[in-house]
Amino acid sequence: MAKTPAKHRKNVKPKRNSSSSQQHSDERPEVSGKNHSNYQCALIFVILATGTVVTLGIAVIMRAGPDSNVHITTDDAEISLLKRPDQKESHSLPEKADKNVGTSEIKETEHRTNGLKQSSAHNHPKEFQETILKQLKPRDITVDGRLVKVQELIGSKKRPEKASIRVYQFEHFLSDQECDGLMRAHLRHVSVHSEDPIICFDSVDTLRRHLRNTQFKNMKITSEDFTEGTTCVNASFSKDLKSILGWSTSTAFYPGETKFTSIFDERVYRATELKPSNGGKYQITSYRNGIGYKTHTDCTIGNRDLRDRMGTILVYLQDVEEGGQTEFPELGISVRPRKGRAITWNNEDIDGTCDPYSIHAAKPVIKGHKIILQRWYYYQNFYMLGKRPSSEPDLPVRQELQPYVSCDEYDHGSCRWYDEWGYDHLVQYRQVKKQLH
């Protein structure tokens, strides 16, 4: 990924967390190089001696309550991504962390899953309707009296015969007012999370490679540099790494938290037939100068689970003076950021198989500030898709509202700041997820 210039400082050995252990899984990166951080559910199995498979529960990634303080005003289409003042979260733990963190998280999840039986009718799993989304069907639409035309993008390269990927573009898909409101909400929300982030890595190798050609290049890195049960370094080391890493910044909101979500869902469906029921959370991501995102696929190559990202829609919220293009290198397609412009593409073929020709990258911003709205749509939906999680994992120990940075596999990913904690940084969770692929 594009790095911010490294500052010349003393070679400081990081303070090792007192609760560190030798726990370390075989953290080989996914084939796609994409850290699938928004996988929102996974079945956890135990194989008994007889060979019987017993489902223990649904491992649900949960965070803050669904009644979030996210709203839209009629005047400026601005949404608020901030938590209510009474929504307090604490992730302080006793000095000695639970070594069986994965087990404790699973047990807690079992309790939550069983608790679904107590939920209201509209939230009950029995009301869930499974839907399949096989392909994009783009068309011209009218928005507030203006014609929004679709254009299929043809690359500079000859199209590979095996490629199933199609990329489409819509100008003025969002109005200036909508773009401005989304950007204001994003920047305001980021400012609230003012604590230095805790930094997590795809693997020890990814951390080592980030340290090359820096003041930390001679440092011996092992799994002990990760806090116990996680792939995150401690707060002290995270602060040191802040000077050598660059990252994009992402905030999230969910369906129903603002009137904008229903407006956007309806517009996307009319233009593409991407079903709202198959959509995940909405993400607003910003890139400052020098920051991009390396080549990656949104789906996972070789994944057998149909609950994967079939399609993507991306809207540029402002112009970028130089750089910041979205590029599909295998197709020879490059799209410049322009305010209100949307691009959409399929990541999988009609059978739900991840197509490697969907590989794409966000080129580093050279001059300006890039901000996008993005949503992924899944081939097969699942119950927790698009629902705001009700809690976050306890590990690592952190301050209230402290964000984290996730650095994906070095060659096919980059670092990104998040306002909400998932579970992919937990060692045992990663082991379970790997078994399910």
TrEMBL record:
The chain crosses the membrane at residues 42-62. It comes from the Eukaryota. Residues 276-379 form the Fe2OG dioxygenase domain. Residues 1-16 have a biased composition (Basic residues). Its cofactor is L-ascorbate. Residues 1-34, 82-125 are annotated as: Disordered. GO terms for molecular function: iron ion binding; L-ascorbic acid binding; procollagen-proline 4-dioxygenase activity. PROSITE patterns: FE2OG_OXY. Keywords: Dioxygenase, Iron, Membrane, Metal-binding, Oxidoreductase, Transmembrane, Transmembrane helix, Vitamin C. GO terms for cellular component: endoplasmic reticulum. Residues 24-33, 82-113 have a biased composition (Basic and acidic residues). This is Fe2OG dioxygenase domain-containing protein.
